[in-house]
Amino acid sequence: MFQPREYLLREKGHSTTLKGLGEVPKAFIVCNHAEPPSDEKIIAFCRKHLAGYKIPRRIERIDELPKNPSGKVLKKVLRQRS
């Protein structure tokens, strides 16, 4: 089974991490294109490919995902931004 990040990575090169922040999932979007997709397109894509509880209710666009020296995403830092 694919996780949300894997689905969104496939969608035109956009990368994200999607974590359940309490009861409300939030997507952090790093856009690699000059014309980023709208929030509605991102949510529509998620509705098509994900279970209802994994669909993000909030979307935040960021320049890059915070990572540690070994390249792992710092989820704790993302949770603090919420």
Topology diagram in text:
Elements (H helix, E strand, L loop, with lengths): L3 H7 L4 E7 L2 E7 L8 H11 L8 E4 L13 H7 L1
Parallel strand pairs: 2-3
Antiparallel strand pairs: 1-2
Task: Outline the structure in words.
The chain is of the alpha+beta class. The protein is 30% helix and 22% strand. It is built from three helices and three strands. It has a three-stranded mixed β-sheet with strand order 1-2-3, sandwiched between helices. The longest helix has 11 residues, at 39-49. The radius of gyration is 12 Å and the shape is globular. The model is unreliable at 11-15 (pLDDT under 50).
Brief digest:
By secondary structure, the protein is of the alpha+beta class.
Cα separation of the termini: 27 Å
Low confidence ranges: 11-15
The pLDDT mean sits at 76
Radius of gyration: 12 Å
Order of helices and strands: HEEHEH
Can you count the beta strands?
3
Helix content: 25-40%
Tally of alpha and pi helices: 3
Note the beta-strand portion. 15-25%
Query: Looking at the structure, what is the overall shape?
Result: globular
The largest beta-sheet arranges its strands as: 1-2-3
Biggest beta sheet attributes: 3 strands, mixed
Structural class of the helices, strands and pairings? alpha+beta
